[in-house]
Write a structure and sequence with these properties.
The complex is a heterodimer of chains A (418) and B (178). By secondary structure, chain A is of the alpha+beta class. Helices cover 19% and strands 44% of the residues of chain A. Chain A has a 16-stranded antiparallel β-barrel. In chain A, β8 and β9 form a beta hairpin. Chain A starts with a helix and ends with a strand. Chain B has 178 residues and is an alpha+beta fold. In chain B, β2 and β3 form a beta hairpin. In chain B, α3 packs antiparallel against α5. Classes of the chains: A alpha+beta (418), B alpha+beta (178). The interface between A and B is large, with 64 and 47 residues.
């Protein structure tokens, strides 16, 4: 560096055009020494700055690593409590739903109809427990106390272990909801219209209907799926009530298991917004072999469609029972049927969504004889969802009774799920 | 009894028929990214978007709750971003891969489905309807999604994640704008 500057200066000094005003060699030498000193100081400063920058870079990297580690740790804590398992018991998730009803008609009544808790547990990625515990009508009392009895029930609606056989097939064993109709497996209040469940899926398909047994399910990428279940059956030994389907559910409570049943369903959802399904159930003997010289075997068939296009919805369902034997024939319960059609329209508003529906239902639980027993129901109503998991409902139901006075029932409801 | 035996035989026959079908394989997140960036020179390095106060409020309005993470990893190449996001359906998280191109969903794919019901949302006959959807002025999807009976909560979860991916794509592009 020094010699380079000196050579440059010598070249300048040797120029013919040098003026007398130029500094002398001694002055130039002093100037060069001064500049050299400044260059040395700048070099030292640059080295110091470079060293400090490296230190700052190292500190920044260290801080970034700490932030990354902290973030990852915080996220792992959040994830553990976000449903992957964790919380109080690793692998356990909790959900549920509830609904409050007010009915005004022949009887004015307010009833917290259901409060349900789901408690599910993953034993591992392929084996899980699914359970559903329900309190109906808010209060369960011991009738033997002599206090005014409540209609409340404490019910175990699901308690089964499911095994993933493949990514598209599962087997389950335990107490489970039967794959029949629209509401039996999915009946959270925010998922259907109307305060009360429709009459067909109450009196013909006795929703909520669960049995104990084993089941196999298979799904295909085309949208086709298939379920088959072998399970406990219905029973009613009293002759007059034989075939009263809703009363015949044993609810897997020390249930008669002399005769069982098998249910199968084929469902197709391969067309966007459309669900088509049909179920067939065969009961070996709904009297559980208690009738002399009579086998009251029964067949339930159902078919339904659920179509949604944008805000428009259309549900339609038909179900029918055919029960063998003279006992059922004597009361006309050997043939029972019901059907309904339910158009609806749902649309977003400033807060949440609003939906209107109409439903026409026909139910006959004693269609096997000539007596007039066909009931017709017309429902009109509205659902308001302030949140996807909260629903407020209002509807009016007109009941056309074949042998009694017609009824009008106004209902309000609140439903939630979590 | 004869009818019962016939029904059992019919079901066994159906079981034998379905057992012949080949299984589909879940799409691993790595494979989803490889498929997404097949025309690029490999999967780009992941980037992170930190959920600032403003972003957290938007995310909360979309999901109804905070996202269980302070930052979200994404992959970007050109005008496309890919996201792997999770949202609880009924009781368990659904893992989804979503690709946004030019402010619209190009492709969505359910990568891991853990729920017992609502399996229909895993398949193209349902997910294909998200393709080409953007956000309208109010931050909702520009087209309604046709739901599936019995899978409402899973459909809701996918719809929310579609909105979230579109919002996050717009958010990172706004942050990168000069």
């Amino acid at each position: 560096m020094k010699w380079g500057v000196a050579a440059g200066v010598s070249a300048l000094l040797s120029g013919a055009a040098m003026a007398d005003t130029l500094p002398s060699a001694e002055e130039m030498w002093a100037l060069i020494q001064k500049q050299q000193k400044q260059i040395d100081e700048l070099s030292r400063s640059l080295a110091t700055a470079t060293e400090r920058t490296a230190q700052v870079d190292a500190r920044t990297k260290s801080v970034e690593q700490k932030v990354e580690a902290t973030s990852a740790h915080v996220e792992s804590l959040a994830t553990e409590t976000a449903g992957k398992g964790g919380g109080l018991i690793e692998g356990t998730t909790i959900g549920g739903y509830g609904e409050l009803h007010y009915n005004s008609g022949p009887t004015d009544m307010i009833d917290f109809h259901r409060f349900v808790l789901f408690v599910n547990h993953d034993f591992n990625e392929k084996m899980r427990l699914v359970s559903e515990l329900e309190v109906e009508h808010a209060l369960v009392k011991n009738a033997s106390t002599g206090q005014p009895g409540s209609t409340g029930e404490l019910e175990l609606e699901q308690a089964y272990v499911e095994f993933d056989l493949t990514a598209q097939s599962q087997a389950k064993a335990g107490l489970f909801l039967l794959p029949i109709g629209i509401l039996n497996e999915t009946h959270e209040p925010a998922t259907f219209y109307g305060v009360e469940r429709n009459k067909v899926e109450s009196d013909i398909i006795p929703t909520t209907w669960w049995e104990g047994g084993v089941a196999y399910s298979r799904q295909f990428e085309s949208g086709l799926s298939y379920d088959v279940a072998v399970h406990s059956g219905l029973t009613k030994t009293a002759g007059a009530d034989l075939g009263d389907i809703r009363k015949s559910r044993q609810k897997v409570a020390s249930a008669d298991a002399q005769d069982g049943a098998v249910t199968s369903r084929v469902k197709y959802t391969g067309i966007k917004g459309l669900t088509l399904a049909t179920s067939v159930q065969y009961q070996q003997d709904i009297a559980q072999s208690t009738l002399a010289r009579e086998n009251a075997d029964a067949l339930l068939t159902s078919v339904h469609a659920d179509w949604r296009k944008g805000g428009f919805g259309l549900r339609a369902l038909y179900a029918r029972w055919d029960i063998n034997g003279p006992t059922a024939q004597s009361t006309g319960r050997d043939v029972q049927y019901g059907y309904y059609i339910e158009p609806s329209y749902r649309f977003p508003i400033s807060v949440g969504e609003l939906g209107f529906f109409a439903r026409y239902s026909v139910v006959d639980n004693q269609a096997g004889n000539s007596a007039a027993s066909e009931k017709r129901y017309t429902d009109l109503g509205v659902n308001y969802w302030p949140h996807a998991q909260i629903v407020l409902k209002a509807d009016v139901q007109f009941v056309d009774n074949p042998t009694a006075i017609d009824e009008e029932i106004f209902s309000l409801g609140l439903g939630f799920q979590f | 009894m004869k009818a019962f035996r016939l029904l059992i035989a019919w079901n066994i026959g159906l079981l034998a028929w379905v057992a012949r079908a080949e299984d589909d394989v879940y799409l691993a997140p790595e494979r989803f990214l490889e498929e997404t960036f097949v025309e690029a020179a490999g999967v780009p390095a992941p980037q992170l978007v930190w959920l600032t106060k403003e972003a957290r409020e938007q995310v909360r309005s979309i999901l109804g709750h905070d996202y269980p993470s302070m930052r979200i990893r994404y992959w970007s190449a050109g005008a496309r971003t890919a996201w792997i996001l999770e949202e609880v359906g009924k009781t368990k998280p659904i893992t989804m891969g979503l690709v946004v191109a030019g402010g619209r969903l190009e492709r969505i794919k359910v990568l891991i489905y853990r729920e017992s019901h609502g399996w229909e949302v895993k398949y193209p006959f349902f997910t294909d309807q998200f393709n080409g959807i953007g956000l309208d002025a109010s931050g909702r999807l520009s087209r309604p999604i046709d739901g599936i009976s019995g899978a409402t909560l899973s459909v809701n979860a996918l719809t929310k994640l579609g909105r979230l991916a579109l919002f996050l794509d717009a958010f990172v592009r706004k942050a990168q704008a000069p």
